[in-house]
Design goal:
The chain is mainly α and 138 residues long. 78% of the residues lie in helices and 0% in strands. The protein is rod-shaped and about 100 Å long. It starts with 16 loop residues before the first helix and ends with a helix.
């Protein structure tokens, strides 16, 4: 049977429902994190920057780079789920993708807070200098 259908004795088993459940659940959770965490965080940072008339130093470059790297990592982990056939491994990959998405979505708050602390560190010597100029006895 040269052109006929060959009986294949493939050892590959079909993907289990656990793999598909892990994929769907992880994708939904990642999307919910983007909409429910990242967008409000970026809105809060934008409002704070606007409310201080630009005095707040927002590290836009590092925030954008971290978000891009973290979301690419999450996307790769989600794509890996499609290639595996083991349900437990699919769930581990899915949880890793969700954690990556969550950490990256919260990173802008940390980055702005660290930047603000640096700004306050620069402000304290300025205030001490002003006090020394106006109250020379101190």
């Amino acid at each position: 049977m040269m052109f006929g259908r060959r009986a294949s004795t493939s050892t590959r088993r079909p993907r289990s429902r656990a793999v598909w459940a892990a994929l769907v659940t992880s994708v939904v959770l990642c999307l919910l994190i983007v909409v429910g965490v990242l967008l409000p965080v970026l809105t809060l940072i934008g409002a704070a920057d606007g409310g201080t008339a630009g005095a707040l130093d927002v590290p836009v470059g590092s925030i954008a780079a971290a978000i891009a790297i973290g979301y690419v990592l999450a996307l790769l982990l989600l794509l890996l789920i499609v290639t595996v056939r083991n349900g437990a491994l699919a769930w581990v990959l899915g949880v890793a993708a969700v954690i990556s998405t969550l950490v990256v979505s919260l990173w802008p708050l940390v980055a702005v807070a660290l930047s603000g602390v640096d700004q306050v560190g620069d402000l304290i010597p300025f205030i001490q200098d002003l006090i020394a100029r106006f109250w020379p006895g101190n």
